[in-house]
TrEMBL record:
Record protein name field: methylmalonate-semialdehyde dehydrogenase (CoA acylating)
Domain Aldehyde dehydrogenase: 15-478
Source organism (scientific name): Vogesella fluminis
InterPro entries: Ald_DH/histidinol_DH, Ald_DH_C, Ald_DH_CS_CYS, Ald_DH_N, Aldehyde_DH_dom, MeMal-semiAld_DH
Keyword annotations: NAD, Oxidoreductase
Keyword hit for Lyase: no
Keyword check for Oxidoreductase: yes
Top-level taxon in the UniProt lineage: Bacteria
Length: 498
């Protein structure tokens, strides 16, 4: 195994080999080829990364806003120049198509661009004469060492949701990428150093539960951004909050679409197909449930016909659907499909037997559609994270809204309709944080923030955009009075006069 490349840690500006004895393979999900080995960092290595961040914070927080911003101007340029290379690394280790991989990098790039102008969102406020001769002003100061823990499904975008915003606002950072696909993240980190991020300002450790727990417990880490499953996110939120940290967790989902019979059928079915099966369903904003209202229930055969046209194959040939991340993920999805049949849903299209010539060992599952799905079935109650679409039926828009509001998750939702009144009613009544109107995957650009809600999120503030500036800073208010020596001579102030 020694011929395999190893994924390095980044500590204090140096890419270093871990001294751990625990390693796992990074595997190409289309071929099972082992691409590299990733270390499960030791406790001492986590400590060293945090210590580097703590030391670097002393000068980084005083680095002028413009100097910090220009690093991200440079980084966005480097990412653009390396787009094809980054996408190729991502596809090899994660499986998604090259087009999707470029999209993954691009959505992160937008956050880097935003980080380059963050100064305008980190301004304080000033009120003159809050009492006679007394002024109050506020400043938004960086917190110190912040940490990020990221999932496998967007290994470029999600690290880029985190470290550019944390660093641009004056913090230092320890990143823990997904151990399943850390290589594209590391290439982005190399580019960040090339763009001018100083030693210690950005550090990277790799690992699984032990490293995550060490981050949650570490007394010198002030805030943690987590993106991943609800189970792990809830654990991280509870553990790190108990340790006194600020925590934000973006977690699992079950995103519903409502299809009204007045929708533009062709567009609605195309968008639904793309949003359910694209990226093999491994998006936290995938549309995994469609509630067909009234006459739209007759559209199932056309939906199935469209899904059947999707090409499944290795991501580097740019099919419609690549493989799932791991053999375990494929087994889990297949088990859930079997459970759906067992629990009485109608299997309209079965993707389990898909076979890709020349890639017989790839983790492929084809588009799968169930109708007659009900709460209580495992395929409805669990996030499948595969190319499986569940269809439900409702007689009215209000009945469809009630189904969605009764589901605990609140990441995203969409409605397909040509009625402005119906869309407005939906937008007002739906209890989900990100709403699309004839837009299937309504992830906001970084001028806003990612605003998943209810069981899909813990913590008040979202990642990137305006909200994360509040998350990564502490507001300090200063109330000041300056004495005019002559006017105040001889007076002794013993009481607070506000
Ligand atoms: P995951 O929860 O398994 O892993 C996320 C991170 O937690 C990884 O870095 C992993 O190493 C670590 N981890 C895994 N098990 C752990 C444990 N027992 N204790 C401590 N740390 C642990 O998630 P994943 O499978 O990599 O990603 C898919 C999940 O992420 C899906 O549920 C998806 O919906 C969610 N997700 C959510 C969003 C969002 O914005 N809401 C975005 C992307 C992905």
């Amino acid at each position: 195994m020694s011929h395999l490349p190893t994924v390095k840690l980044l500590i204090n500006g140096e890419f270093v080999e871990s001294t751990t004895s625990e390693w796992r393979d990074v595997i190409n999900p289309a071929t099972q080829e082992v691409l590299a080995r990733v270390p499960m960092a030791t406790a001492a290595e986590v400590d060293a990364a945090v210590a580097a961040g703590k030391a670097a914070f002393k000068s980084w927080k005083k680095t002028p806003i413009g100097t910090r911003a220009r690093i991200f101007l440079k980084l966005q340029q480097l990412i653009r120049e390396h787009m094809k290379e980054l996408a190729a690394i991502l596809t090899a280790e994660q499986g998604k198509t090259l087009a999707d991989a470029e999209g993954d990098v691009f959505r992160g790039l937008e956050v880097v661009e935003h980080a380059a102008s963050i100064g305008s969102l980190q301004l304080g406020e000033y009120a003159e004469n809050v009492a006679g001769g007394v002024d109050t002003y506020s400043v938004m100061q960086p917190l110190g060492v912040c940490a990020g823990i990221t999932p496998f499904n967007f290994p470029a975008m999600i690290p880029l949701w985190m470290f550019p915003m944390a660093i641009a606002t004056g913090n230092t950072f320890v990143l823990k990428p997904s151990e399943q696909d850390p290589m594209v993240t590391m290439r982005l980190v190399e580019l960040a150093l090339e763009a001018g991020v100083p030693p210690g300002v950005l550090n990277v450790v790799h690992g699984g539960p032990e490293v995550v727990n060490a981050i949650c417990d570490h007394p010198d880490i002030k805030a943690i951004s987590f993106v991943g499953s609800s189970k792990v996110g809830t654990h991280v939120y509870n553990r790190a909050s108990l340790a006194g940290k600020r925590v934000q967790c973006m977690m699992g989902a079950k995103n519903h679409a409502i299809v009204l019979p007045d929708a533009n059928k062709e567009q609605a079915l195309n968008q639904l197909t793309g949003a359910a099966f694209g990226a093999a369903g491994q998006r936290c904003m995938a549309l995994t449930v469609a509630v067909l209202v009234g006459d739209a229930q007759a559209w199932i055969p056309e939906l199935v016909a469209k899904a059947k046209t999707l090409q499944v194959g290795p991501g580097n040939t740019n099919p419609d659907i690549g493989p799932l991340i791991s053999c375990a993920a494929k087994d889990r999805v297949a088990t859930l499909i079997a459970k759906g049949v067992e629990q009485g849903a109608t299997l309209e299209l079965d993707g389990r037997s898909v076979s890709v010539a020349g890639f017989e060992h790839g983790n492929f599952v084809g588009p799968t559609i169930f109708s007659g799905v009900k709460p209580g079935m495992a395929i409805y109650d669990q996030e499948i994270f595969g190319p499986v679409l569940c269809l439900m039926a409702a007689d009215s828009l209000d009945e469809a809204i009630a189904i969605i509001n009764a589901n605990p998750n609140g990441n995203g939702t969409a409605i397909f309709t040509q009625s402005g009144a119906a869309a407005r009613h939906f937008q007002e009544e739906i209890d989900v944080g990100q709403v699309g109107i004839n837009v299937p995957i309504p992830v906001p650009v970084p001028l806003f923030s990612f605003t998943g809600s209810r069981a899909s999120k813990l913590g008040d503030l979202g990642p990137y955009g305006k909200q994360v500036v509040l998350f990564y800073t502490q507001t300090k208010t200063v109330t000041s009075r300056w004495f005019d020596d002559e006017a105040s001579s001889g007076k002794v102030h013993t009481t607070i006069q506000l």
